[in-house]
Amino acid sequence: MPDQLIYAMEVTLNGLMAGVLYALVALGFVLIFKASGIFNYAQGVMALFAAMTLVGIMNGQVPFSHLINAIFGTHIHYFGWQVPALLAILLTVVVMVILAWMVQQFIMRHLVGQEPIILFMATIGLAYLLEGVADLMWGSEIKTLDVGLPQGINLWIDETTYGIFGYGFFIDNLDIVATIIAALLVAGLVAFAQFTKQGRAMRAVADDHQAALSVGISLNFIWVLVWSVAGFVALVAGIMWGTKSGVQFSLSLIALKALPVLMLGGFTSIPGAIVGGLIIGVGEKLFEFALGPALGGATENWFAYVLALIFLVFRPQGLFGEKIIERV
Amino acid sequence: MLDATEGYTTADGRKIGGVVMEMKNITLRFGGVVAIKDISFDIREGEIRAIIGPNGAGKSSMLNVISGFYIPQEGEVWFRGEKRPPVKPYEVARQGIARTFQNIALFEGMTVLDNVMTGRLTQMKAPIWAQAFWKGQAEREEVENREIAEKVIDFLEIQHIRKTPVSRLPYGLKKRVELARALAAEPKLLLLDEPMAGMNVEEKEDMSRFILDVNDEFGTTIALIEHDMGVVMDLSDRVVVMDYGKKIGDGTPDEVRNNQEVIDAYLGVAHD
């Protein structure tokens, strides 16, 4: 087998792994958009906030310590304990649910029936607010996140591929774990949406608000639920990205990478978010591998957006989105 | 012939029971516009009660007051002997009042069966983890709810489209699916907002037959809105007539038909 093809296979595998992370972020967008028609610009910041909260809780950091110290002239920063990862994750989930409730109670509830652009603006506001609150609560320095996920090269794959091709593939253990967790998460979400009363109610609300009310579904409750689920997805994405590249404010920018994924997959489709994420992940890695050197490199920065642009022209509803037909 | 507690017997010999729902001096305003002005009437157990009137008379507003979509500024709503506080539409639904909409509100992305099953949502009590794994109580509930849904589907003769996504159905069938979803909730009161609007003669006849059958078979109390006089007169036991937000007639179809004010409203006598 020619060397180029073997390298391309490795690149494809790595692209799939990267795509899983894009898909995770895009998933959070789709959930909220489907149920409430809100394009949640703050999804990326929610991932950042979740990751920072998780690190903060694990390290026993005192929330708002800078603020407290500035007001009372004290010098407290840490409680002096470490919280085990699993417990910290559970506590972070609780925080994300509270956040979801607050978003619904103080912002979205008052904007029901407003134009989509107004809802969108509200989430931009929410994004900056949340970023500020995250900064105030946990500080702005880059933190390492280690919840005990395996990291580093997977030796088994390395050796096996070396045995077959005479060249060992470099696949990160973390990427493999991320893929498995993402698959479990999606399976869980599907089971929730198909089989539980709350999931069915969620689908009903996504479809028609009036009809949902008339069969006894509380919209308010469902929206808190949806934001909570999106918060949970954000936490999972935050853990993966945070473990990979440290918990830092640039994490909120991964939200921008989710946009082309959504253009490809369609804003209303959960399978679309996953397939879109994988296509972008593989596409940008392969493109860089094949044409990067000829084009002067760094094509990963723009490839996804150009692909999205092409899709917008020829298939605006995305691969799996609902076709928009307006009767005249 | 009307007794406050005992009810009455209809011309075709059906026994009508006590008052299920009573509207007392309802007034509803939107800003300066008065949509409903001081209207009172009752709905009795087992009867088919119609609210009719020309376009813009406030019929739909009245239905929305009953189903909790609108909260009236004045007046009281009594349901099953209790005064109802201002409630949200979903709470009204949970109390056993199901409804359909004038311009059809179905879950377009779901199949007919799934739509009808949403009518059973409020009846599911099993904890979420049990539902996710279909164990114990959840499984029993699911089977039970499914049976009721299938019974309603059979009854309304929509078995052949059980698995069809609603968005692919023609208008008349959609209306029937909406009725099925409302019926699946086994409502104590069924509200129908213009069930025959936009239908051809044949579809209207079908729908009329289903409404009569539902009332007959399940003893469901039905309140419906319609502006097609002919249809209403054949269907209903008692009729409320509205015009410009006011009640101008209330009684059996025959009484209403001979009411001068009603005739004027329908034939269009100049208002001073």
Strand-helix topology:
The complex is a heterodimer of chains A (328) and B (272).
Chain A (H helix, E strand, L loop, with lengths): L2 H34 L6 H16 L6 H8 L12 H23 L8 H23 L16 H11 L7 H23 L1 H11 L1 H6 L4 H27 L8 H12 L4 H26 L7 H12 L14
Helix pairs in contact in A: 1-7, 1-8, 1-10, 1-11, 1-12, 2-4, 2-5, 2-10, 4-10, 7-8, 7-10, 8-10, 11-12, 11-13
Chain B lengths: L7 E2 L5 E2 L2 E12 L2 E12 L3 E5 L6 H8 L7 E6 L2 E2 L5 H6 L2 E3 L12 H7 L9 H6 L3 H19 L15 H14 L4 E5 L7 H18 L2 E6 L2 H7 L2 E6 L2 E6 L1 H5 L2 H8 L5
Parallel strand pairs in B: 5-10, 5-11, 8-9, 9-10
Antiparallel strand pairs in B: 1-2, 3-4, 3-6, 6-7, 11-12
Helix pairs in contact in B: 3-6, 5-6
How does this structure look, described?
The complex is a heterodimer of chains A (328) and B (272). Chain A has 328 residues and is mainly alpha-helical. Chain A is 71% helix and 0% strand. Chain A has 13 helices and no strands. Chain A starts with a helix and ends in a 14-residue tail after the last helix. The mean pLDDT of chain A is 87. In chain B, the strands form 3 sheets. In chain B, strands 8-9-10-5-11-12 form a 6-stranded mixed β-sheet, with helices on both faces. In chain B, strands 4-3-6-7 form a 4-stranded antiparallel β-sheet, with helices on one face. A two-stranded antiparallel ribbon of chain B has the order 1-2. Chain B is of the alpha/beta class and 272 residues long. Chain B folds into 2 domains: 1-96 and 187-272, Rossmann fold, CATH 3.40.50.300; 108-186, no CATH class. The model of chain B has no long low-confidence stretch (mean pLDDT 88). The interface between A and B is medium-sized, with 24 and 33 residues.
